[in-house]
Write a structure and sequence with these properties.
Layout lengths: L1 E8 L6 E10 L2 E6 L1 H6 L16 E4 H6 L6
Antiparallel strand pairs: 1-2, 2-3, 3-4
Length: about 70
């Protein structure tokens, strides 16, 4: 299982913050926002596909390909 923490520079405050953690296992990616992001109501880059929430967000590689995010 691969994992990565996602950091960003908030466009509203210019602070570098931990947005969340992405894990990938068997072609399925799971993203979880950091507790700080949820409690402070961080700005998020894609509120439609990745709304700010404490729930895990799962996407498989075919979903990403349909958005043009992955190439075969």
């Amino acid at each position: 299982m691969a994992s990565a923490y996602i950091y960003m520079e908030c466009p509203l405050s210019s602070k570098t913050v931990t947005l969340g953690k992405l894990t990938i296992e068997k072609g399925v990616g799971t993203f979880v926002y950091s507790p700080e992001a949820i409690s402070e109501g961080f700005w998020v880059p894609d509120a439609v596909h990745y709304p700010l929430s404490g729930k895990r967000i799962k996407r498989n590689s075919s979903w990403m390909k349909s958005l043009g995010g992955l190439r075969s």
